[in-house]
Specification:
It comes from Desulfosalsimonas propionicica. Keywords: DNA damage, DNA repair, DNA replication, Hydrolase, Magnesium, Metal-binding, Mutator protein. The protein is an alpha+beta fold. 25% of the residues lie in helices and 34% in strands. Strands 1, 2, 3, 4, 5, 6, 7 and 8 form an 8-stranded mixed sheet that branches. Strand 1 and strand 2 form a beta hairpin. It starts with a helix and ends with a helix.
């Protein structure tokens, strides 16, 4: 049975009909791999993979948002290395603008609070995961960033 739209919005942390929902996500790097998070069964788009993050609160900067969200969702502190270009995606019931940050963990041990699973994934295996639609463009942007960074 299809999930109720209001429930999807609540689960996706996005409620706004006046424009795009501003959301951040963290591409957390460690030892040549990236952290991917799998959405839980009660969330919108259950079991799809995503980069962890969440909705920017009023008056909050994207940088402050991603630091807060990762602390809440994963229990770790991060350092932002760089920001990638934002990307936008329209779902049937909402429109989001995703602000991706490449980060590294500076303190703590990952303890997922919201996600079904998390895993470290090699760069060349990222596209093999079944990503939430909005994250696909972010994965591709990140892979292009990695190519440029390596000078290939």
């Amino acid at each position: 049975m299809p999930e109720d739209i209001s429930e999807r919005r609540k689960n996706s942390k996005a409620v706004d009909s006046n424009g795009p929902i501003e959301v951040t996500c963290a591409i957390i790097e460690k030892n040549g791999q990236v952290l991917a998070a799998q959405r839980g069964p009660a969330m919108a788009m259950p079991f799809k993979w995503e980069f962890p993050g969440g909705k920017i609160n009023p008056g909050e900067t994207p940088e402050n948002c991603i630091i807060r969200e990762i602390k809440e969702e994963l229990g770790v502190e991060i350092q932002i290395k760089t920001m990638l270009p934002p990307s936008s995606h329209s779902y049937p019931d909402l429109y989001i603008r995703l602000h991706p940050f490449v980060c590294r963990i500076t303190h703590g041990r990952i303890k997922p609070a919201e996600h079904h699973a998390v895993q470290w994934t090699a760069h060349d295996r990222l596209l093999a995961l079944e990503w939430a639609e909005a994250d696909v463009a972010v994965v591709k942007s990140y892979l292009n960033y990695r190519i440029g960074k390596q000078g290939i």
